[in-house]
Amino acid sequence: MSSPTPPALSAETLAALRADFPILNQEIRPGVPLTYLDNGATSQKPAAVIDAMSHYYEHMNANVHRGVHAFAERATAAYEGARQKVADLIGAGDAQEIIYVRNTTEAINLVARTWGDATLHTGDVVISTEMEHHANIVPWQMMAERTGVTVKYIPITETGLLDMGEYRKLLAEGNVKLVAVAHVSNVLGTINPVKEIIKLAHEAGALALIDGAQSVPGMPVNVRDLDADFYAFSAHKMLGPTGIGVLYGKYDLLEKMPPYNGGGSMISKVTLTGTKYAHAPQKFEAGTPAIAEAVGLGAAVDYLTKIGLANVIEHEKALISYAMERLSEVIGLTTYGPSVEERSGLVSFTLKGVHAHDLAQGLDAAGVAVRAGHHCAMPLHDKLGVAATLRASFYVYNTMEEVDTLINAIESTRRYFA
Amino acid sequence: MDLYSENILDHSRNPRHWHALENPDIDYEESNPLCGDHLHLMLHVDDNGVITEVGWEGQGCAISKASASMLGEQLVGMKLEDARNISKEEVLENIGLPLGPVRVKCALLSLKVLKAGAYGLSSPEGAPTPSAE
Q: Do B35 and A358 touch (CB under 8 A)?
């Protein structure tokens, strides 16, 4: 076993960081500490996020954008302050380009139901990919039923990369109006060349939507540098709470789009004969929003910014390099996806003769939490020719020792079922 | 490591009645979309409504296979009418392990397939057949 790449975060920094996460400091069963490697599903939350949400409820709870009393103003300031933090995190030009939604899934559905339904017609083409999460496939298939557009898919190569040659061919076939691609695959871990994908889409006259659910949590992202038209992600995978996510959209696009839900907050004037809508982002945020969750998201952004996302990805790279090396030593184990250089901090694998669910159960007995199943990417699993895989996904608080715990648990489960 | 009982391991390694039946009277298959487990049940039923032969095919985790295997053993010689009344509790008792809400679905897939087949439903469209995979 060669010595692993030294992690970006020193042992002291990592120990201090782990102490910020109350959930990590417990045993899932007597004598069995938690080894949490299911970060691709959802991340754990630091005390800073939990406290910010409690503080909001204890000291300023009020509805936002309504009323002029002190709490209403404090709540509105906190809610909008978080929007600015998110805009700064991803390099948006303006906080007005940040729309709060429930999660990545809703962000993508919002684009399909507003921009898509209003703009697209029979004969138009939307390009997605074989490696997408269902959240970036199903909304387009549903939109196709409503509008008559055709959905085409960029295939993946043997090594789990997008086939860029095939992408160019799909664009050349014409009528492409939207390219919807994950920045990072939630199964293969592939970091896709989205800047180039977006450039090619624009040259073909199409817009580009990027599913950033797996990228924003773990690497620096700048939507203006990428020139993304839409960029979607969830708070809960980046140390924030569930129930809130973000759709970034270029402001001129957002202004041209029809509203999403109708109701309070999204109007500028209502009469009984008609309604004039508010500007973005309020136009897309009907009803009382997830205020405490926005505050929690703001705290998560602060926390990540303090660590530095460049450090997060470097730390994940060190963990995944070591994990890939150790996994390659396990008899009968197959990993999926590209080389470490082209991959984020996650890996999916199967073990010969042991069903993914049984392997996950074996790992659980050792306190190791991973995901088993198709990870909401059934078309990709069809392509890989497996019904289910196991996925270990690392994050900023994971350690090299936890990689060893994972490998030891796989080995003992393998022996158990052998 | 002591994950499952010897009984479950035995049934999952050597599942009983694990073969296709020719001209089955009841033929039903279904997948668990959460994990991709797939079970195909075939039954021969005589004129008195008694199950004479059971055949399973498919793929799954140890729990779903063991559950199907044990259920199959129980079915031979049973009236189809009575098979419709086998309860979830009975199946889970046979498994004899504490199961969370996710694994319970693995354990109960075989019963789901049996009930749907026994009530004369046809397999859902697009159910993949193991041979085609």
A: no
The H helix count followed by the E strand count for chain B is: 5, 3
Q: How far apart are CA B102 and CA A412, in angstroms?
A: 23
CA pair distance B11, B66, nearest whole angstrom: 5
Structure tokens at A47: 């005390």
> Does A69 contact chain B (CB < 8 Å)?
no
Q: Are the CB atoms for A246 and A107 separated by under 8 Å?
A: yes
Query: Cis ω on the peptide bond leading into residue A193 (within 30° of 0)?
Result: no
Chain-chain contact of B35 with A416 (C-beta, under 8 angstroms): no
Please give the model's pTM, rounded to 2 decimal places: 0.91
In B91-120, the residues whose Cβ lies within 8 Å of chain A are 103, 106
Q: Among A355, A359, A389, A408, which would you mutate to test the B interface (most chain B Cβ atoms within 10 Å of its Cβ)?
A: A355
Query: Are A381 and B36 an interchain contact pair (Cβ–Cβ within 8 Å)?
Result: yes
Q: What is the ipTM of this complex?
A: 0.78
Minimal CA separation from B61 to chain A, in Å:
5
Give catalytic residue positions of A.
376
CB B64 within 8 A of CB B109: yes
Report the DSSP pairing between strands B26-32 and A125-129. unpaired
In tens digits, chain A (418 residues) has pLDDT values of 444 555 578 889 999 999 999 999 889 999 999 999 999 999 999 999 999 999 999 999 999 987 788 888 999 999 999 999 999 999 999 999 999 999 999 999 999 999 999 999 999 999 999 999 999 999 999 999 999 999 999 999 999 999 999 999 999 999 999 999 999 999 999 999 999 999 999 999 999 999 999 999 999 999 999 999 999 999 999 999 999 999 999 999 999 999 999 998 888 888 888 888 999 999 999 999 999 999 999 999 999 999 999 999 999 999 999 999 999 999 999 999 999 999 999 999 999 999 999 999 999 999 999 999 888 888 898 899 888 899 999 999 999 999 999 999 999 999 998 8
Cβ distance A90 to A222 under 8 Å?
A: yes
From chain A, the residues in CB contact with B36 under 8 A are: 373-374, 378, 381, 387-388
Across the interface, of A372, A373, A416, the residue whose CB is closest to B1 is A416
Beta bridge partners of A248: A98, A231
Task: Please tell me the distance in Å from A393's CA to the nearest CA on chain B.
Answer: 18
The amino acid at residue A39 is N
Tokens of A400: 């090299």
- CA–CA distance, B16 with B23 (Å, rounded to integer): 19
State which amino acid sits at residue A92. A
Domains of chain A: 11-45+308-417 (3.90.1150.10), 50-306 (3.40.640.10)
Task: List Cβ neighbours of A10 (8 Å cut-off, separation of 6 or more).
Answer: none
Q: Which of residues 343-362 of A touch B (CB under 8 A)?
A: 355-358, 361-362
Nearest CA in chain A to B100: A361
